[in-house]
Amino acid sequence: MTAKLILSLDGALIQEYPLSKERMTIGRKADNDIVINNLAVSSQHAAVITILHDSFLEDLDSTNGLAVNGESIKKHFLQNNDVIEIGKYQLKYLNDHVSQTSADDFEKTMIMRAPVQHMQPSAEKSGDTGLFQSIPAAEPEKVSPGITEETPEKSSKPVMAPDLVVAPAPVAAALAAIQILNGPNAGKELDLVKGLTTLGKPGVQVAVLTRRPQGFFITHVEGASFPSVNGQVLGGQPRQLQDHDLIELAGVKMEFYFKN
Amino acid sequence: MKLEEALEIVSQTDSGMVRAHNEDSVATEAACGLVVLADGMGGYNAGEVASGIAVSVMVAEITQPLKDSSPIKRDEETGEELAVALLSQSIHKANAAIFQAAQSQAQYAGMGTTIVSALFYDNRVVVGHVGDSRLYRLRGEILESITRDHSLLQEQIDCGMISVENARHSQNKNLVTRAVGIDAEVIPEIHLHDVQVGDIYLLCSDGLNDMVEDDDIQSILYAMQGNLVLAAEHLIQTANDNGGRDNVSVILVKVKQGFAQQRSRLAKMLDWLKK
Q1: How many CB pairs under 8 A join A and B?
Q2: Of A151, A196, A203, which has the smallest distance from its Cβ to B41's Cβ?
Q3: From the CA of A242, how many Å to the nearest CA of chain B?
Q4: Helix or strand or coil: residue A10?
Q5: CA torsion angle for A98, A99, A104, A109 (degrees, to 10)?
Q6: Which of the residues A22, A195, B22, B109 has an alpha carbon 20 to 30 A from that of B218?
Q7: Are B224 and A221 within 8 A, CB to CB?
Q8: Residue B152's pLDDT is what?
């Protein structure tokens, strides 16, 4: 299913436009793919470039500009449910490609048979609007022919859902910290916000505290001195930490505790 | 200094949390400083077959000639060092072997694989890759990707259509523009890099870098550089904790000492005369 733009004015639906072409233009003049006959709209206002399942919106130096989800933009990588504002009109971008996939389809690496010729390297900085504008005219023809002759598993689609990639782990894990109990840094508290917190100096003496979906762990990495938890010296295996565990590493005592 | 003593090499592969098969293959040959990682694709078990052929052909084609020839011996016609020529040739041979198998057996039709490979010699490393498997280097505290993916997304980034930030949300993430075994010919990308003592090299399949941010890879490698086995386990564990949607493979190579190639007196003399 191809992505589409839905044109509406004050909440009233006007028309649906499937993004069936690599480059579709939006403007006041009749030769645009999406015609909006309103004086606030430039004759050629914007273009949407679609490459496989990704679409990009670009302002074609219009007089009144473009906004996506309330922010004015020159170019934009469209995401499902984005709302493009042109004058008083709204164009909603829908790409339900994501929701149609099953877990099996995820991230199977696929081969593009006809290798895409190398796009001309440019001296301009990436992110430069000028560069972006120069490509669409030449680029789509190169990419289009038979771009995804897939491997035998015809059914699997090379799709990735952005919202599903982010791991739920960091959200689920509780907040925790360690407090140093002795020595010059006594009283110091260290929040364990990162996935990995290093204790010691790499190359010399290191133990790490790792945050995983199932909790916090301490692991000895290197060095002659092994950490101990509640008086028990660790082996090579990670050990899960419990609230108010007492850690001792090379003479420094620390307390581990949950913050909520 | 012998390569085996100069380099510490660790590899690990895991099918991940979702896939039933592991289509990745890895091989390490400490004696000649060779590491190869391949991420296969194709139906049924064709992915495993393709990556397996790639790895075994490359290992055989490189280790055999290096038994009695020096990696720095230059080809008289091309002027190319043997190590560089072998790496490139072996990828071509792997390509031919996979392509032939795919042509001759229906169940393997269309199979292919990515390859990332590194051959360490004479205080340098020659890197050959095809597809989106990567080689990273940790030098000091800086982690850098040394290979550039042959993927649609990378080409979109290169021409400024999409920013690196937005690229993480792209749906075209796993389309490779080059692969081994798909066509009769393949163009491997080959580069030579200087090696420094203390460098750590990470070869990985996209199952790692799609699931774990570069910053997190950096902090794991940096913190665990003293314990490569633990670092490899931890990288895979992190990919799996984050969802593990694909097979995950890693090879870690740590440079503990220099490994300049012994040159014979005659060779030294010739080098001197050439100057």
Answers
A1: 180
A2: A151
A3: 20
A4: coil
A5: 0
A6: B22
A7: yes
A8: 87
